[in-house]
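Human:
Care to share another protein and its fold?

Assistant:
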Amino acid sequence: MLKTKIMRPAIAMLELIFAIVIMGIILMSAPQLISTATKSGYVAIQQEAINEAASQVNMIMGYHWDENDADEKYIDPILASTGDTDLDEEGTTGRRLGTPKESYRAFVRSDGQRFNASALGGDLGDTEEDDIDDFEGDSRLIEIEAAVADTVEKTTIKINKTISYSADEADYTQSSFTYDPFSASGGTTNIKSITVTVTSDSGQDELEKKIILRGFSCNIGGYKLVERNF
């Protein structure tokens, strides 16, 4: 009597070895994959902090240059300072040298008043933030969260703002010159520097970095759009 053998599929020893090797490679790379995912989460947190700092710089630059030109009823005048004398008023014209007569950028406000640039810091008796240097020394904490590996990491970021007067003098007799708008100066000048510093006390090495963003604003007065009919 004939016997029929039925062949059934099975796993060969070679295939089993290959499967074990591949699983081993995957398991060996798992820690590196987790580490990469964690760092990506920290990078996301840092990027959020940088975006917040950048928005703070832009926000501050949108304020009046000084308390003495913050009256909304008038166009901001240029303020007298102790900075570069080449930027002072030309005689009694109310304007700087080279400024057109039709320009609204003048030392004399439309009501005839003239003002000096004031000292930095919060203005006496004024509790409102209406000019750039009201943000001097302002610090605030923000909490940012991002997916880190398989968890949501919450990190506290400190944003500190510093406002200072910068040197505005330059040697115009040279054919070329270098100028640093962020070099500190004593007294009042025609440039205010804005520095926003981002730090973290999270204890994570990836986040223990000091990030500094800078901006500056100049004492050039305000402007008014002019309509012309053609």
